[in-house]
Amino acid sequence: MKSLTAYETDLSDAEWAILEPMIPPAKPGGHPRTTDMRAVCNGIYYQLKTGCQWAMLPHDFPPSSTVYSYYRKWQRHGVWERLNLRLLEQCRLQSGKSLQPSVIAADSQSVKTTEKKGEVYGFHGGKKVKGRKRHLIVDSLGLVLKVIVTEANASERIVTAYALMSLLEEGTQLLESVKLMLVDQGYRGDTFGLAIWLLIQAKVQVISRSGKSFEVLPKRWIVERTFGWLNWYRRLSKDYEHLPEMSEAAIYAVMTRIMLRRLSATSTTL
Q: Which of 151, 149, 150, 146 is closest to 164 using CA atoms?
């Protein structure tokens, strides 16, 4: 086995002990897996943190084609989303929270794209951003329950309702105890409130500003904090992905890295 350089993004022994049992096994009946899966995960996290091109991964990782192949395959099979939810549950229990949150929050973030041919993107008139919009639903710890990436001019209310429907269809029990959803003024409206009530029997609380001056909004700030975490990863500084579902996978993957650090308590950095 080749000697590996230690990178800041590498999984510690404690983090790998948490993640390894969740890694999908090799297909039965095929050749035994010879790829070092810890090194593959290290390569994925390195790319997400630095934002480098896949082909520019340092040579002490497995071949970039191998690393990307696993990253893409796990996106197609929903592995990143499942890992995110499993680690979220562990983080909630570690923090002394119940497994099922009673309060959730929703918000969106408009980001620029690289505008490659064939990309799905739009123009957000309010924020003057041509690109895509990341819609997040998070718990009170700021951990992501669901992310949907759309064109920049998509309706926050429609997409958030769709995100909740998707979670319900996936069979998660994380929404069963939700009593309150926190949102900003962009989600205001009786129709949206009724839709959320019909979906999860939760009330919608719109957090609004009292004036033009800057004001800290602690309840809804949990989503802003999550966006701040994501911004520490250069792959997410813009939307570089050709497909929106790959953008979603990148966010789920970044959240797994953040939660592994939290669970192992090996570092205070993201």
A: 146
